[in-house]
């Protein structure tokens, strides 16, 4: 697929849309969490954003919410959706629980051991491991779509860690400061295999819930 390794190639990391999660749990890699009605609209909005772009490859995380987000974009370009487990959500010991002090998981002393090292982090998959798998998947997508554009549908933390690592910034961070809204697009432009530009846009900005917090990523 695509040209040789020369020319300009863009790899887009698309975060999935809003998930139906009425109990507000951290769903992580748990199965069964699908897009809400608003999330489906966000997926269509993303497809509209990519409609006029030279997309020749669409790849998704195995999670249902990512696959659903990928569907409209793949359909618009008459492409099959590839699945890559390397762009899946990060593992987290708090999956299936509400996360907070009050009546959440942090109210239980047995959970405190998981918070001992925020730099690794101790509650889940190491940041460097996430960075390595994301960069490997992006490199393969770049090569497969050489001279064109690829869309990889992933999750907030993996997308943000990929960006931090490729910007040569520290990987530990304040989660509240991630620039990776629902259905946002973080784009990496390459000349050959050299990264020359990183851009960020929010095609669904006007659809984002005002001040609501959506658990998980």
From TrEMBL:
Source organism of the structure: Spongisporangium articulatum
SMART domains: PGAM
Pfam family for this entry, one: His_Phos_1
Lineage: Bacteria, Bacillati, Actinomycetota, Actinomycetes, Kineosporiales
Leader sequence segment: none
Entries under InterPro entries matching the protein: His_Pase_superF_clade-1, His_PPase_superfam, PGM_Phosphatase
Name of the molecule in the record: Histidine phosphatase family protein
């Amino acid at each position: 697929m695509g040209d040789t390794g020369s020319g300009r190639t863009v790899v887009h990391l698309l975060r999935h849309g809003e998930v139906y999660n009425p109990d507000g749990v951290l769903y992580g890699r748990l199965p069964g969490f699908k897009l809400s009605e608003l999330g489906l609209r966000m997926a269509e909005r993303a497809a509209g954003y990519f409609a006029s772009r030279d997309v020749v490859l669409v790849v998704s995380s195995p999670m249902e919410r990512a696959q659903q987000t990928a569907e409209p974009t793949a359909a618009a370009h008459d492409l099959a959706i590839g699945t890559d487990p390397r762009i899946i959500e990060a593992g987290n010991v708090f999956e299936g629980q509400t996360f907070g002090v009050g009546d959440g998981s942090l109210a239980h002393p047995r959970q405190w051991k998981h918070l001992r090292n925020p730099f690794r982090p101790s509650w889940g998959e190491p940041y460097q491991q996430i960075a390595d798998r994301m960069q490997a998947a992006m490199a393969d997508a770049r090569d497969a779509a050489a001279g064109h554009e690829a869309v990889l549908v992933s999750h907030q933390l993996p997308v943000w860690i990929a960006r931090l690592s490729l910007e040569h910034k520290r990987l530990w961070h304040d989660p509240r400061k991630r620039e990776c809204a629902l259905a946002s697009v973080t784009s990496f432009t390459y000349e050959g295999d050299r990264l020359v530009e990183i851009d960020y846009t929010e095609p669904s900005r006007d659809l984002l819930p005002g001040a609501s917090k959506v658990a998980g990523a």
